[in-house]
């Protein structure tokens, strides 16, 4: 790929980013879009919204960047939790290590690659991107020691930064555990594979077992019921509530008195009536028959729960399987209906599906690789030769189109792995990787533009939420304006960070031209993700930073893969000295990984008994244990309480925010400080919330639902 094609792709993506970021800075100021760009603040802040008309609302401004940059880690921890802090520390680590890598490789490795062979060079924009790779060095070159030295510097810096980050995050996780003294999950154990008995229910079997063997620590339990029955009851109740809610626009859940048309007396309207029975739909329903062989068991202390979760309960490991319970809002009740004996089969099926997706994904990858090589493209499609002679068309096809097509395939097929080669034997892996990576350096760089820069701009724009909001307002005339608050997509964004980290490490000494563009991506990611965490996404699932070991291990893998590729190159270039020095580096990296695995990783997988015992003693001395025990039974209810359910939804019409960019924090306005740069107007109208309580709240449960709740 020519540098001109690379610059064309960069120009297209830079233009897209500038347009989208400018458009975002305008759209976020419009009151109609507050529920899209300030969902978290609407739900958590309860602020008031005003709708003045002023010209600054339609002028782009960088105030959101300033606020994201100035927000401290402590403020972020208090607002979004430890998971958000750990995620941003992953981004910060990437910025630090790739800044060091870019300085070393651009200053020393890139010039060595460019002048690797004695020849007359063209102008920079007419050069091929392969001129800047290690492929341009001649065999037996004495300058390969520069690449080996750079590899040592990068590995040493990465390991040093990883060690300090691991140590810091481990301390933060311990602080997270000790600071969450009232978490019900610390007193609760999830029991699966309860043995079936024809003489008694699962609940009676479980109660008898724990009364006999854990009488001093056992408190109570909560059975898991068949998810279909529970969901049908909740759905019927929700539909009934929604039907009554939309009978009249001003309906509420409290009875009101209006004069009767016929007699002139007062009659109750807009009120709920309790039915005397449930009808035939639930008649004859046996609660015990709906129990599943799983339950949440509650214990008196955290240490008791920890011991039960770690000890093998039966001589048959497939029965009485125990594990520490997740947080109540982390429970996916449908999964608990799956028999434990089926789990290993499902894991195998998942692995087979992942491998199948990997091979399916090879088809678009092979096609896209051909697009990056003009000669291969002309040979495969002769009718395109005339079009490809046009310089601009050539640059767009080879520089921009391949990465766009690949992203489209990412949405169709899960991005599990990009396998670019088929190896004939294990010994050929370093050499074949060494031959393949430089030829795809240009494609990886354009992929950084399209999947990196442009995707970040789309992330901050929230196009799907924006379109849905516009449709609800303009087309369907939705006056309720209810919306679902969003959770941060860790499951997609962490793999994206890891992928770009892998590309950065593997191309660092091979094709360092990608490093400045990756560094720009990580800087943008830090500001944009921080803005989204502060304003858009709410925190529902909190793991306490448990995914940091995944990031650590993946970074170690990226370093090892980089060293193996470099070893293959040194072998191809017949440099025995560089090859000899690379092997000890691989061994040292493995030793560092093993040390971290023993020193820090257990903290992220298990709770220290010492910490839990100290927490139990502190709660006993403060007299909090009885209060905690009373709350345990209700928090793991399969029938959600109104307070649990209402936290996931909000209504734009019930929240009022000051309009952006006019009020300044230094003016002393509390709302302006909270929303950093928004303009208030005292003439705004405040709306009352007239929505009905959830059908699943205690006062609207059906008798069968109440019976289920009592039996558990």
Automatic annotation (TrEMBL):
Residue stretches spanning the membrane: 6-27, 97-116, 143-164, 348-372, 392-413, 497-529, 549-570, 577-595
InterPro entries: Csc1-like, CSC1/OSCA1-like_7TM, CSC1/OSCA1-like_cyt, CSC1/OSCA1-like_N
Biased segments, Polar residues type: 642-655
Sorted UniProt keywords: Calcium, Ion channel, Ion transport, Membrane, Transmembrane, Transmembrane helix, Transport
Tree of life domain: Eukaryota
Extent of Basic and acidic residues compositional bias: 659-672, 698-712
Membrane topology value: Multi-pass membrane protein
CSC1/OSCA1-like 7TM region domain sequence ranges: 422-570
Annotated compartments: Membrane
Residue span of region Disordered: 642-712
Pfam family, one: RSN1_TM
Family: Belongs to the CSC1 (TC 1.A.17) family.
PANTHER family to which the protein is assigned, alphabetical: CSC1-LIKE PROTEIN RXW8, PROBABLE MEMBRANE PROTEIN DUF221-RELATED
Official protein name in the record: CSC1/OSCA1-like 7TM region domain-containing protein
Organism: Brassica cretica (Mustard)
């Amino acid at each position: 790929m020519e540098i001109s094609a690379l610059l064309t792709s960069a120009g297209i993506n830079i233009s897209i980013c500038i347009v989208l970021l400018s458009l975002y800075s305008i759209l976020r100021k419009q009151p109609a879009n507050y529920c899209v760009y300030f969902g978290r603040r609407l739900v958590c802040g309860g602020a008031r919204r005003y709708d003045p008309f002023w010209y600054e609302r339609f002028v782009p401004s960088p105030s959101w960047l300033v606020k994201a940059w100035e927000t401290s880690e402590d403020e972020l921890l208090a607002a979004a939790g430890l998971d958000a802090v750990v995620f941003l520390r992953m981004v910060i680590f990437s910025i630090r290590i790739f800044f060091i890598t870019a300085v070393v490789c651009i200053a020393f490795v890139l010039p060595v690659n460019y002048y690797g062979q004695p020849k007359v060079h063209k102008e920079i924009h007419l050069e091929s991107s392969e001129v800047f790779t290690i492929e341009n060095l001649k065999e037996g070159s004495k300058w390969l020691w520069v690449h080996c030295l750079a590899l040592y510097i990068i590995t040493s810096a990465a390991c040093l930064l990883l060690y300090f980050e691991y140590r810091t995050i481990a301390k933060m996780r311990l602080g997270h555990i000790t600071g969450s003294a009232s978490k019900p999950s610390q007193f609760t154990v999830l029991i699966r594979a309860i043995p079936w008995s024809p003489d008694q229910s699962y609940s009676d079997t479980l109660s008898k077992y724990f009364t006999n063997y854990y009488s001093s620590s056992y408190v109570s339990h909560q059975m898991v019921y068949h998810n279909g029955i529970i969901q049908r009851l909740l759905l019927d109740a929700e539909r009934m509530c929604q039907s009554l809610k939309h009978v009249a626009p001003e309906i509420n859940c409290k009875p009101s008195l209006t004069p009767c048309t016929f007699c002139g007396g007062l009659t109750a309207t807009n009120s709920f009536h309790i039915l005397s029975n449930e009808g035939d739909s639930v008649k004859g329903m046996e609660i015990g028959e709906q129990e599943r062989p799983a339950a949440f068991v509650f214990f008196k202390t955290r240490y008791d729960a920890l011991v039960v979760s770690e000890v093998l309960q039966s001589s048959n490991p497939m029965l009485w399987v125990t594990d520490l319970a997740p947080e109540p809002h982390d429970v996916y009740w449908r999964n608990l209906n799956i028999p434990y004996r089926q789990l290993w089969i499902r894991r195998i099926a998942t692995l087979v599906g992942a491998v199948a997706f990997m091979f399916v994904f090879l088809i678009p990858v092979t096609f896209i690789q051909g697009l990056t090589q003009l000669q291969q493209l002309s040979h495969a499609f002769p009718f395109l030769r005339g079009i490809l002679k046009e310089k601009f068309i050539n640059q767009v096809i080879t520089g921009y189109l391949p990465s766009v097509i690949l992203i489209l395939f990412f949405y169709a097929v899960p991005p599990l792995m990009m396998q670019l080669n088929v190896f004939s034997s294990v010994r050929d892996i370093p050499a074949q990787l060494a031959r393949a990576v430089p030829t795809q350096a240009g494609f990886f760089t354009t992929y950084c533009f399209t999947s990196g820069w442009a995707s970040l701009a789309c992330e901050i724009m929230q196009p799907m939420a924006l379109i849905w909001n516009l449709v609800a307002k303009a087309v369907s005339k939705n006056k309720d304006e209810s919306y679902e608050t969003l959770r941060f997509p860790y499951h997609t964004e962490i793999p994206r960070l890891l992928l770009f980290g892998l590309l950065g490490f593997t191309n660092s000494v091979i094709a360092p031209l990608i490093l400045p563009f990756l560094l720009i991506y990580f800087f943008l990611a830090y500001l944009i993700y921080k803005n989204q965490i502060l304003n858009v996404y709410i925190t529902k699932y909190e793991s306490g930073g448990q995914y940091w070991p995944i990031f650590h291990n993946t970074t170690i893998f990226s370093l090892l893969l980089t060293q193996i590729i470099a070893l293959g190159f040194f072998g191809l270039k017949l440099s025995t000295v560089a090859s000899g020095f690379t092997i000890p580096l691989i061994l040292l990296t493995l030793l560092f990984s093993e040390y971290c695995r023993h020193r820090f990783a257990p903290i992220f997988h298990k709770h220290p008994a010492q910490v839990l015992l100290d927490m139990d003693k502190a709660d006993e001395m403060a007299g909090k244990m009885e209060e905690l025990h009373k709350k345990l039974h209700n928090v793991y209810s399969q029938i959600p309480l109104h307070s649990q359910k209402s936290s996931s939804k909000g209504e734009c019409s019930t929240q009022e925010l000051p309009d952006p960019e006019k009020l300044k924090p230094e003016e002393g306005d509390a709302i302006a400080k909270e929303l950093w740069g928004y303009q208030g107007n005292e003439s705004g109208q405040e709306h009352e919330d007239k929505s009905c309580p959830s059908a699943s709240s205690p006062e609207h449960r059906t008798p069968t639902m109440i019976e289920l709740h009592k039996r558990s």
